[in-house]
Structure formats: C-alpha cells, structure tokens
Design brief:
The complex is a heterodimer. By secondary structure, chain A is mainly β. Chain A contains 12 helices and 53 strands. Chain A has a 22-stranded antiparallel beta barrel. In chain A, strands 10-15-16-13-14 form a 5-stranded mixed beta sheet. In chain B, strand 11 (490-491) and strand 12 form a beta hairpin.
C-alpha cells in the first residue's frame, strides 16, 4: 500500500522530471530468496522521479541529473538505498521486513502508516480469512483479533454472523459499520472471504470518530482484491469436502422413555392417559425399539468453493476479474446455501493529475430452509423438534406413510415437516458498485470523490402444501408466500487530503470532507391460497382461491455529514490526531437531528527517541492514548418519532359480512428520540522486540454508552408495543492483548500468535426504569437486564440439589421452624431461600450467570517446513453460561411431562426410593415446582474450539518453472475438529443475537443449529 | 458538494411512508372508522400476536371460562390435549397459564386501541355525528374489555388515556367496585352517544348500539348484585335498563330457536351484540376475519378438535321434549347438518359435543365465519324477569319467562337432521311440552325457575359460570377438591357471594408490580 502511494506520487510528477533525464538504468528486484518482487517502488533519492517494478520484478528508470542514490521500497520488505555510481544494471535483493508498524493501513477516508496511528486498529490479511470453510467473510475473522468477538448466528448455511467489537455496546443494534473500498454498508455478506485483500478493524474513538454516528460499534474496513500492473495472473482456488454434526444428544430410547413416563404417573397414583397406554406398555416390554429422530433429520453435507480470478494490466490501467462459486449443504437435511459472486474492478490513471476507478460486485445467493417467505428469518425448528420428539412414536406407519398420533400431534409429524423445508427458499441478489475520482490539486493536496451504490433484491418464497394427517396435523389449504424486497443505498463522499512532510521527519496532514447517504427500499409480499403442489404451478398466478393477501413495506432514510481530521507528527516521535464529525439524520426530528462526534488521540513512538535508538532488544515501542465520542444511529428505528398506524386489523360488519379493514396505533412513539453515543477512552501499547520477531499490542479501554436507545419491554397491560427511548447507560471496560512470535529453526519457519480479550460489561443506568426481563421460554422470562450487572444475565431460582430423604425435607425450615418448601417430597428440587423470608417464590430469583464471557481468546500457529505448511487456529470462550432452553423439556420432571417429549438419557438416574443419592429429581405427573426456571438449566458454556487445522503442500519452484506456473498448493483442512466444553446442548457457541434477533435473549439456546465439523481438500494454483 | 446545502432540510425530512399516523387518523372519515374497526378486531382475536405486532399469544375463548369452568361442560378432546384448559377446569392454574395471559393481553390491547379513539377523535376534523357514534363504539368496547377482565381477574388498573411507558410499573389495581364504576360510566356514555340498532345501515350491522350498551350495563349491574355490590346497585336498575331495551322496540325473540346459531340467525332481531366473523384464508392474527372457535369445538370426525363437551348434567336439566336440547347437543350417531356424526369416546369425556357451534368445514379450518352471540334478547327478558322476581313483581317475571318458553316450544329441530339435508325438521313437541310456568310462582321457587330457564336457554353460550358465581351456587357444582382450590383463590370478605379469581399472568405481576390474586 505504501508502495502504491509512492508510485502515485512518482507518476504524478514524472512528466515534469522527464525533461532532465540524462541516462537510463535497469534492473530486477527480488526478495531475499530470489523471488521477484512485483510492484516495488524505485525512487531516485531526494527527487520524485521513480518507477514501479513489473510482475517479474524488473524495472527501467531514466535518471535525472545529479542522481546518486536509488531508494527501493516494497510492502513487507525493508527499504534499501543503493548508490548508483556508474552501474546501469542492478540486481537488488530486499530483506523481509517484520516491521509491521511501518505498513500502511487503510483508515477512514485515507491511509496512514501504522506507526502514525494514535488509535487502535487491527489488521487481518486476506490469506488468513481464506483459512476457514465459510461463505461469510465475517465468520472468517473469528479468533483472529483481540477485542473482536465473532459468533455464528447458527450453523445453518447462510445464516450470518454476529460481530461485536469491544463487547456489546448497547442493548440493541451492536453491529459495526463496514466500509468496503471506501463505501459504507451495513452488511458484507455479498462478499466471499476469497475476495478480500485485507481487513482493518477500527476499535477506539480516535480511529472511528471520523465515521461519527455510525462508528460506535467499531468499523470494519475491507479492502477487496484489486489488479496490479504486470502480465495477467490467473489464480484458481478451490476446495471440496463435507460437513457433519459434532455430536448428537444422548437421549432415552423407547424403553427408557416409557419407564420414566409410566413412573411419573405411578408416583402420583395417577392413570396414564388412555390414548397412550398401549404405546407405553409396548415400549416397556421392549416391543418398540424406538425411533431415532436425530438420525432422521441429520446428514453429511457437501461443501464446495471454487474461485478463479484474472488480474493484471499496465500502470495506466489495472484490472481484476473474478468468479466465485460456493455451495454448502447443511448438516440438517433440506438446508443449504449456494452463492455466486462475480467481481470486476478497474483502476485507471487518466492524466497526470486524475485517477479514477470503478468496481462492481454481483452476488447471488440461494438459501434453502430458513425464512418465512416475507424476508424475515425463521429459525429452523427441525433439529429442535428432532431432539424433543418422543422415541416411542414413529413418524411413519407400517406402510411407510406419515403417521398421526393424538398425543404428540401438536408438534407436526417431523418426517413430513422436514420434506416441506425444501419449498422454503430465499434468493438474494446484490450489486455493489462504486466509482471514485482522485484529483491532485497541488503537490500535497488531493481531492477524492467516491460514489458507491448498493442495490439489493431479496426474493423469499415459501410454499406450504396442503396435507391431512389428522385433526391437529393438517393444512386444509395450501398457501404460497412470495415477496420481493428491494433496497437501495448510496453514499457519496467528497474529501480533501493534505499531507506535508517536513525535513525533520515531522509531518502534518488534514482531511476535510462532506458526505451524503441515503437508503431507501420497498417490499411487497403476496400470500396466495390453494396453490397446486406441482413444482411448475407453485406460483401466485396458479392460486385457485380468489382471495389473497398483499402486504408492503417501505422506508427512506438519509444522513448528511461534515467531517475533518488533523494529524501532526513531530519528528516521528509525538503524534496527535484530532477528528470531528457532524451528522444529521432523518431518523430524528429537527432539534435532535444533529450529532457532534469529536475525538482526540496522541501517541509517543518511544523507540524513535535517542535513548532507545540503539537498544537492539526493543525494535518498536509506541504508547497510545485516545478519547472521543461516537454515535450509533443504527440503534434508532426509522420513524421512531412518529406514531404510525398499522393496517390489516380487520373485522367484519354488515349483512354481507364483508371485510372491514382496521387501522391501529399498535406501537408507541417518541418524538424526543435522539442520538445514542459511546464515549471511548483507550490506552494502548504497540511493541516489537528482538529484531521484530516478537510483537505485542495491548490496549485497555473504556466505552460508556449514554442515551442508550432501548425498546424497553413494557407490561402487557400497556396494550401497545413499546417505543424507542433514550434510556440508560452502559459501560464496557476491557483489556486486549495480542502477542505474536515468529522465527525459524533451520528449515522450519514458525509463527505463533495469541490474542486475549477481557471485557467487563455493566449496565450503569436504566434511567430509573424497571429491570428488563426478557429471554422468554416456556417457563417464563429467563434473563434480566439491570443496573450493576452485565446485559441480559440469567435470573431465576438457585437450585440446591434435591431432597434425598424426608429428613432433609423436614430439616429445611426457616428460623421459626416453618417448612420452607412445605409441599416438597424426597426427590424434589431444593431451592435456596435467597431473601430469607421462609418461602420460595419469585422474590428468591437471583443472578445465575450470563452469556457474557469472562474472557475470550484465540491462538494460531503456522509452521512451514520446506514445501509443507501447517496451520492451526484455536478459539476459546471462558466463563460464559448458556441457558439450555431446548433441554427444559429434556430435563423435565413434572407438570410439563404432559408435553410428551424425550428426555436426556441421564434422567434414568432420577431419584427413586431405591436410588436416594441421585441428584436428578424424581418423576411426577403432578404440577410441582421442580421445573421452575432455576440454575438447573443454566450451564457452563465455556469452550475451546479448534476452529481450523490445515496441512498444505506447495510444489517447489523448480517444478513450477518446468510447467511455467506461478504457484501450486494443495491442502487438507478440518474445521471444528474438536470442541472442549461441558455444555450439554448441541453447541456452546450461541449467537449473541439470540432468538429472533432479540439481544436480551443472549445465550438462550432454543436448540441452535450447531456449527458443523468440516473436512475439505483444496487446491490453489497461480499461472 | 455545496449544491446539497440548500436542500439539506428536504434531504433530511422524511415522513413515514405508506402509513397513517395518529396525527391524521381522525381527519378522514374512512381512517376514523378503521381506527374503531381495529378495536372490534381485538374483540375477535382468538390468538395471534401481542398488540397486533410482537410475540404470538395463544388462544383464549370465552367458553373456556363460561362453559368449561362450570357444570355445563367438560374440557373434551383427548385428556392430554391442551392441558392449559384442564388447569382452568380444575382450578390448578399456574401464573404461566397461556389462556389467562392471552385474555389479559388481548383485553388491554383492546383498551389501548379504544383509548386511541376516545382521546383523539374530538380533535379530528370529521363530521360530528360520526365522531359521536365512533366515540360511543370505542367507549362500549373499552367497557366490554374491562368487564371481561373484572369478572376473571377482579379489580383492574383503569386507563382513561394511553399508558405512558414511564408510568409502567407505577400502575396500581383498583377495587372491583371502582372497576365496575368505570365500566358503568363508559357504558352510560356509550348509550347516550350510540344510535339504536335500527338506525345503522345494513352494512354497519354488528356495530355497538344503544341497546347493546344498556344490555351490558344491566349485565354488569346484575353481576355486581350477586358478587361485589359496593356500588350499592339495586335490582330496580336492572329492571329499568332491561325495560328501556324492551320498550325501544328494536328487538324481538327470533321465532325459531334452532336457527339462532345458524347463518340466518346472525345479527337477527334477537341480537344485541355479536362478535362478527367471516371465513378467510388467514388462519390467525389481526388480519384474520374468521374464528378458530369452531375448529376447537367441532367433532374430530368432521374437522375439529372436540373441546367443550356438554355434560350429562346439562342434558338432564332440559325438560322432556324441549327442542333446545337437541339444538344444544350432538350425541353419537346424530345427523348434524346432513352429516352423520360419530362421537369418539376417546375425544369426548361426556359422549356429547356442542351442536350450536357445528358448521361445515370452512376453507381454512382456523378461520370460520360463525358469529359468537354475546348478548341475546332472551337474556334481556330473563334478566328483567330476575329483576322483577327480586322486586316482588312475580307476575311480570313469570310472563317474561313464558315468552322465552313459548318461543322454545315452537322451535324446530336443528338443521340437517337427515342425511344430506340442511332443512329444519319439525320438533317432537307433543301437547304439554314446555308448559308455561305457573303464575303463582314466587320467591326462591321463581328464581329457581328463572335460573333453570337461563341454563337451558343459554346452554353452551358461555354464560353459565358467571351465572353460578353471581347466584352463589358455583362452589356447590365443583368436586370438594376443586372447590377447595377455587376457594383459596376467592375474594370472600365484603361480597355477596365469594368471587373466585384466576391468576394474573406471571410477567405483569413479576416484573411490573401488578398485585397478584389470592393464593397464586
């Protein structure tokens, strides 16, 4: 990147220098191993005359009068100065440079040397992103960067990922801003990891405040792959493999199940419901071996990714064209994703002072098995139902047809339900394009205008076939729900960059700009009825019922901004950055509309001080500090200030009983809604030791979110859905550490990195409002968000084992000798009387842990030996709890036994008079307190996961040369080969987005689609 | 880039698209009417999203309370099917019971929507006459929702205005008497504002009327007379109100009892208030115009789940040859609407099903068109009879009861009692069937006769439970075990008869400080 900047400067000024040329030199630039270094900048020292090496590393340069020294620089290499003398042909080998601090990184509206940054910025290379088998570029970042927590929404193909930069910053939208090649967007799922050259994550206010109202949750800057000058390079990348579930749950078989259910009734002297007796007895006597529903729905899924790109061009015109295909079958049958990405970009030098470029990415993805037909996600309940289904009822009759069972019929026949998922499809098409124009106005002053527009079309379609299995499991009329949703967003940025370097290595730079953004969209959704099942007739036009229902949705929002930044670098030692941004949004009314977001940062490059210049042990040492405020406009709804009516609240009147449409103000409004802001303080250190073999970055930070916009749950007696309001404050304090060591032992090169993040999340105020209860399960609210604790902690009774004997029940009395659990029997769950009032009720609910981890960590190890390479990437979460909500049924002991769902196999160890030492509650058919929400369902969800392991082999250069190819590598890779956890559910990695996107259901596992284990073989060829 | 500056304001001023706002809702007659329609809509919700947007709320039907909790009906279906209903029936209702939560949530949704109309319509620019009518409808509906709440849960928080979120949590329950006073105030205001039934256009039939407001007021007073009469009501008020309705000449008994619950009986001369439905393909939620009530109660052998089975006790209550018995009951092997009905004992604990809800299978089973009759003229007559009896006007009371009996004995059989037919066959009513009650009846005997008449006239119409409670007979109809549980949830001090109350949903008591009812 630095090279290209210098190249630019060179090219811009080369015409003026041309008059003074006297002679020409030529040469080749290679790395220390003799591999050519294309793109290297060769500059005549003290002038702006220079050139760039071609794809084979060769260059030619006309020397001006008085030229004595060449300066040769290339990214990743140490800059070298060579005396020209009389030599005309040079062979220059550059040494690899571990000084990553001198790399140029992308920052908001420009680039900067990493050593000049005062903010906290982390980088991930494209090669690292490519390591894991996923279609999602965000997921590929998992475990790579300290302070960046990435969780898959689920293992369902295409279900997306949640990324949290420095913790959960707000109780609503905590998604970061993405900036792809300078264009802001809220989603990057249109890219594939292979499209990405590099990723920078801006974490503190000094780095993010330039993005003002969109920066509060961090900013992820994506630089996609662009063409480089030189002869056309082809790159073929591909892999194929399969995925499978990590584990299935150990559940009771038919006989065990029947034993438990029968015992529940026997214990209470109750009679098993008549319509169930025969089935249970048959199973008890071993006549029914049971049905394995997990086996029914799971499969080995194929995963494939192929990518082919061509790039090259001249200095005047560089291009890249790529095509990409990704296909993934889910580990649950009838779920999958196909994704096609075609990219094209071109960068041109138009005149000595004008540069321009365009890029376009076309993406089409097709997802199966997730969606409700109107554009909202649905969470596949197939796996959840498979786990819960009782093992004594087969979904098939003896003749192979789908069975119907009165007892279980309120959950649909799973075998039939599964086949229906294939009719659930969502096609998503995105065209993301941008164009820029760079104008060099003065020697140090440039102007850039970038216009980016993102067009997105979502086309969900769900067909619900007619069927009849029995009164409770039927659909009397088929239906087709089909929608077209169109979203357009554009960003037009205009800014000046001024950059002045002084003789003493001091420098001053300014950025001043203006930006307009608008996003608008509309959707229309039609439901037709009585649509034939024939595949060619599954269209609205084939609907035979006269009535259909139509809905539409639309929005329009805009943002107008002005921003500026100034950097001053004093002798490469003292750095100061100040940024200021004004944002005006259409989401708030006049007086609340403008947000002001300032930040200031300072850094001290200690290693450039004289007293450290000669310290060989310390190669780099920089101290950073920053303070600033950033906004989160995504927390606000589009029209939160207005009280809008929803239609379709229908009734009928009159003798003709015709539909009388109704309009209701179903949601409260808040005209005073204003910006939610995050005030961030950061202290950081960047250091490198032992000739840059050991690098270290550490940050401590605090982020206070104030005026937090919240959709506070309201009581049901309010009768309307809640309004967004500025209530509450939240604080994240954290520590991030990243350590990397690289060296070599003989032919073995190794690189080991670890990162560590600890974030302390506390709600500091809810504006006097009540604690927020959320995370509904069938046993009520399970999470609470309250002052003094982290967001959405689990809140319920503290179970204290079970009563093993009557004596234990009798002894459980309060100070006055009254029984605390008077109705308890031996084998019942014992609850702690937290408030000491001598009885167990909701006032004894207490903190039971939370899904917010104590810390998270990632570790990677890369080994290279001769032509072999090996990588491993680990990711861990420690000190997190999860609510195993899917297991509430599997662990049940009493009243909800009526639901007739399966049990965990270890329920066989339940308390019985002959098994009094068990810690599993007794079976009962009565309503007891045993199944109240308590710590029994809150489980340790810490885990350590081997995210990826990969072994690769590259053909040696001698062989490559023989076949005239640039590179050839094959690899074998395994994702999620092991996960160390005590969690009893399918997967401890539970999305922070929770169920139906509710952030306050954080860590509530409703039966998540787990992360698959993936085995792949792949190839990468350059020619 | 400077070019944008002059148009900044317009670039940033965005109005909500495609939606009406509260600000202009009442400046347009169609929108204003639709705002009121949306209140009625809630009254018709069986199930669906909370507030019309949000989480799904399960079903609640008035028969789950009015019939199943009484001696008139058993839960029905298979024993394990929808045990939340069994919990009501057995008075073992946890605070997480979804049926009571649904009733609670939907009622308050209706109240909030009514408040939108009541508090904003006066500022609107629409015609004053329409304004008055719409406000009257909203007041009636607010009272309707509060009446359902107070009967089930006791004294309620009272909202004249939309509740501000900042007030949430500071809301307190009022007493039962205060809640009734609020309901009466609304109904009286509604009665003044609303037109008589006959003044509505044909395509507005089904909207609240002056008669409906007066009828519900009479009902609310009568319920207080037998439960919490802190408001010191008298039977004279019931007498006067019912008399006002009768003398309005808007209503008459529909000639054929057997047709009241058929299509032809919808919004008939007998109808004071019905929840209106028409079949639609939308199976639930605000968008649906149909009801799931029929599929829940219909025979499994046709298209239903078979809930709400009438009991032998109700069967036995009918006098010999009373045509109303056959109109109320389906027995095994009966032909109903021309179709042979077998009653599977595995799905009917009593061996009976309710015939009043039997309809042919609609296109979408969850969305049937049968209106639910909430207040019939026969009820007005029998309310007046009860008032007259209490006021020692026994002769007048007897005459009113006999009007009802006379209509009953002239009823046909229910429609479609022969295979393939939907015709009304004549009933077997030999001379002496349902004779007039004796003019000499008085005192408790007369009351018993009126109560008997109510039970058979309104069988499976969700009135029995409330009648039992207000007449002090409820606990006597329960098994000792269930009665004991019901008593632990009853208000007994300062009331005429104990008032058993269901639990208020967990969330509003646990999180929002609403006082829970006794024993939960």
């Amino acid at each position: 990147m630095r090279a290209s900047l210098q190249t630019m400067a060179v090219l811009l000024c080369s015409t003026t220098a041309a008059f003074a040329q006297q002679r020409t030199v030529q040469g080749v630039v290679t790395d220390s191993k003799g591999e050519p270094l294309p793109g290297t900048t060769i500059l005549v020292k003290g002038t702006t005359t220079g050139t760039t090496a071609g794809s084979d590393g060769s260059f030619q340069l006309g020397l001006p009068a008085g030229a004595t020294t060449l300066v040769i620089s290339s990214v990743g290499s140490k800059t070298q100065e060579i005396s020209i003398g009389t030599q005309t042909n040079f062979r220059i080998a550059l040494e690899a440079d571990a000084q990553t601090l001198n790399d140029v990184v992308v920052v908001g509206y420009g680039t900067a040397r990493k050593s000049d940054l005062t903010g906290s910025v982390a980088s991930v290379s494209g090669a690292q992103l490519q390591q894991v088998a996923t279609s999602d570029p965000v997921q590929a970042l998992q475990g790579r960067v300290a302070g960046v927590d990435i969780t898959s929404n689920s293992g369902q193909p295409g279900s997306g990922t949640r990324i949290r930069v420095r913790g959960v910053g707000t109780i609503n939208n905590s998604d970061p801003l993405y900036v792809v090649d300078g264009v802001q967007t809220s989603d990057i799922s249109f890219l594939l990891p292979t499209d990405i050259e590099s990723t920078e994550i801006l974490k503190d206010a000094s780095a993010t405040a330039i993005y003002g109202s969109r920066g509060a949750n961090g900013v992820v800057l994506i630089t996609t792959k662009h063409g480089k000058a030189g002869k056309t390079q082809f790159n073929l990348f591909g892999y194929t493999g399969f995925q499978q579930i990590r584990r299935t749950l150990p559940l009771t078989n038919a006989q065990q199940y029947a034993t438990l259910v029968t015992e529940a009734y026997t214990n209470e002297g109750a009679v098993v419901p008549a319509d169930y007796t025969a089935l249970l007895n048959n199973a008890l006597q071993g006549g029914n071996t049971g049905f394995d529903y997990q086996k029914l729905v799971l499969q080995k899924g194929l995963i494939t990714n192929y990518s082919l790109s061509a790039s090259g061009g001249t200095e005047q015109n560089r291009y890249l064209i790529s095509g990409n295909y990704f296909q993934q079958d889910g580990i649950v049958k009838q779920s999958g994703l196909k994704k096609y990405v075609v990219r094209l970009n071109d960068d041109a030098t138009l005149t000595s002072f004008l540069k321009a470029g365009v890029s376009a990415t076309f993406t089409n993805s097709k997802q199966t098995g997730a969606g409700d037909g109107t554009g909202n996600p649905t969470y596949s309940t197939v796996l959840q139902n498979a786990i819960q289904a009782n093992p004594i009822s087969s979904p098939y009759n003896a003749d192979g047809s789908y069975s119907y069972n009165n007892i279980t019929s309120f959950t649909p026949n799973l075998a039939r339900y599964l086949t229906e998922q294939k009719y659930n499809k969502t096609s998503n098409t995105t065209l993301f394009t941008s164009a820029y124009l760079d104008v060099t106005l003065l020697k140090n002053l440039t102007f850039r205008s970038t216009f980016g527009i993102n067009y997105n079309n979502v086309h969900p379609k769900v067909y619900l076939p007619q069927y009849y299995l029995g009164p409770n499991d039927q659909r009397s009329q088929s239906a087709l729900i089909e929608s077209r949703i169109e979203n357009v967003s554009w960003v037009w940025s205009n800014y000046f960059n001024y950059n002045k370097t002084f003789a003493d290595n001091s420098s001053l730079s300014f950025t001043l700009g203006q930006e307009a953004q608008r996003g608008y969209g509309s959707g229309i959704s039609v439901t037709g009825y009585d649509v034939p099942a024939d595949a060619t007739l599954q269209y609205i036009s084939a609907a035979r019922a006269a009535n259909s229902s139509i809905r539409s949705s639309q929005y329009d929002g805009s943002l107008l901004s002005y921003f500026g930044r100034a950097n001053y670098n004093f002798r490469d030692r003292y750095l100061v950055t100040g940024t200021l941004r004004f944002d005006q949004t259409s989401r708030f009314l006049g007086s609340q509309r403008t947000g002001v977001f300032p930040s200031v940062g300072a850094a001290w490059n200690v290693s450039n001080e004289d007293f450290l210049k000669d310290a060989t042990a310390v190669s780099q040492l920089k101290l950073r500090a920053s303070f600033g405020s950033v906004g989160n406009q995504n927390a606000a709804p589009n029209y939160g200030y207005a009280s809008t009516a929803i239609n379709n609240q229908n009734y009928v009147f009159g003798t003709d009983q015709s539909r009388a449409p109704g309009l209701a103000i179903a949601t409260l409004n808040n005209p005073a809604l204003k910006w939610e802001t995050a005030v961030t303080t950061d202290f950081g250190i960047d250091a490198a030791f032992l000739d840059n073999t050991l690098t270290f970055t550490g940050d401590i930070f605090e982020r206070r979110t104030k005026d937090m916009i919240a959709l506070l749950p309201v009581p049901d007696y309010l009768g309307q859905a809640p309004a967004s309001a500025n209530v509450g404050t939240l604080r994240n304090r954290g520590l991030e550490l990243a350590l990397n060591y690289r060296n070599e032992i003989g032919k073995l090169q190794y690189n080991a990195g670890v990162n560590f993040t600890k974030i302390n999340n506390v709600i500091t105020s809810l504006g006097g409002a009540n604690p927020i209860a959320s995370g509904n399960t069938q046993i009520g609210y399970t999470t609470r968000t309250d002052v003094g604790r982290e967001i959405a902690y689990f809140y319920g009774l503290q179970a204290d084992g079970i009563f093993h004997t009557q004596a234990e029940v009798d002894r459980y009395v309060n100070a006055t000798g009254t029984a605390i659990q008077p109705d308890a029997q031996p084998g019942d769950v014992r609850y702690r009387d937290i408030n000491g009032d001598g009885e167990i009720d909701a006032t004894d609910n207490t903190y039971l842990g939370s899904a917010t981890p104590s810390f998270t960590y990632g570790a990677s190890l890369n080994l290279a030996y001769s032509n072999f390479d090996f990588k491993i990437l680990l990711y861990g979460v420690q000190g997190a709890e999860a609510l195993n909500a899917a297991a509430i049924n599997l662990d049940k002991s009493s009243a909800i036994a009526n639901i007739w769902t399966n049990f965990y196999a270890d329920r066989m160890d339940r308390w019985t008079p002959s098994n009094p030492n068990s810690n599993q509650p007794r079976m009962t058919s009565e309503a007891t307190t045993n199944d109240n929400f308590s710590s029994r369902y809150v489980e340790n969800a810490s885990f350590l996961r081997a995210r990826n392991m990969e072994l690769g082999y590259s053909l040696p250069k001698t062989v490559l040369d023989k076949f005239k190819i640039g590179g050839f590598r094959v690899f074998a890779s395994v994702d999620n080969i092991f996960t160390i956890t005590k969690y009893r559910g399918l997967d401890p990695e539970i999305s922070s987005s929770g169920y139906y996107g509710n952030p306050l259901a954080f860590g509530v596992d409703y039966g998540n689609y787990p992360q698959p284990r993936t085995y792949r073989l792949g190839i990468n060829v350059q020619f | 880039m400077l070019g944008l500056a002059p148009s900044c304001q317009s670039f940033l001023d965005k109005d909500p698209l495609g939606t009406v706002t509260q600000a202009n809702l009442f400046n347009d007659a169609t929108n204003a009417v639709q705002a009121v329609n949306a209140v009625y809509d809630v009254a018709g919700w069986d199930q669906g999203p909370k507030f019309g947007v949000g989480d799904f709320v399960t079903v609640h039907f008035e028969w789950m309370f009015g019939d199943i909790m009484s001696d008139d009906a058993d839960k029905g279906s298979s024993p394990s099917d929808f045990t939340a209903v069994s919990e009501l029936e057995n008075w073992s209702v946890p605070t997480t019971n979804l049926i009571v939560a649904s009733l609670w949530t939907h009622s308050f949704t209706g109240i909030a929507r009514a408040n939108t109309v009541i508090n904003n319509i006066d500022a609107g620019t629409i015609d004053d006459a329409l304004k008055a009518r719409l406000k009257g409808e909203a007041l009636f509906l607010r009272a309707y929702f509060y009446f359902n709440l107070v009967k089930t849960f006791g004294g309620m928080p009272l909202f004249e205005q939309a509740v501000l979120p900042t007030d949430a949590g500071n809301v307190k329950r009022t007493t039962i008497a205060e809640t009734y006073a609020f309901i009466e105030k609304d109904l009286k205001a509604a009665a003044t504002l609303l037109p008589e039934k006959g003044a509505y256009a044909a395509n507005d039939l089904g909207r609240a009327t002056k008669g409906a407001a007066n009828g519900y007021l009479a009902r609310a007073i009568m319920y207080q007379l037998g439960t919490d009469n802190t408001n010191n009501h008298t039977w004279q008020e019931v007498y006067d109100l019912t008399n006002t309705i009768i003398t309005s000449n808007q209503y008459s008994l529909y000639p054929n009892y057997a047709a009241i619950h058929q299509d032809i009986g919808e919004n008939s001369s007998e109808s004071l208030f019905e929840i209106q439905f028409s079949a639609s393909n939308d199976s639930y939620g605000p968008i649906s115009t149909g009801t799931a009530s029929n599929v829940f109660q219909n025979n499994r052998q046709t298209f239903g789940y078979g809930f709400n089975n009438p009991t032998q006790s109700l069967y036995n209550e009918f006098e010999a040859n009373d045509p109303r018995r056959e109109v109320t009951f389906i027995k095994d092997n009966d032909v109903v609407l021309g179709v042979l009905n077998r009653v599977d004992p595995a799905f009917s604990s009593t061996g009976y099903l309710s015939r009043k809800v039997a309809i042919p299978a609609p296109a979408a089973t969850q969305s049937a068109s049968q209106n639910i009759r909430k207040l019939r003229y026969a009820d007005i007559l029998l309310m007046k009879a009860e008032a007259a009896a209490r006021l020692n006007k026994s002769g007048e009371a007897v005459a009113l009861v006999n009007q009802v009996r006379q209509r009953a004995r002239n009823s046909t059989r229910p429609p479609g009692t022969t295979l393939g037919s939907t015709a009304y066959a004549p009933a077997n009513t030999p001379a002496g069937t349902l004779p007039d009650i004796s003019a000499s009846l008085a005192g408790q005997e007369l009351l018993n006769a009126i109560w008997h008449e109510r039970r058979v006239e309104f069988g499976e119409e969700s009135l029995r439970y409330w009648d039992l409670v207000r007449t002090g007979r409820y606990f006597g109809t329960l098994s000792p075990e269930v009665a004991a549980r019901a008593r632990t949830h009853s208000i007994t001090t300062g009331v005429v008869n104990p008032i058993p109350l269901l639990p208020i949903e967990l969330q509003d008591t646990q999180t929002w400080g609403i006082t829970q009812n006794p024993g939960y």
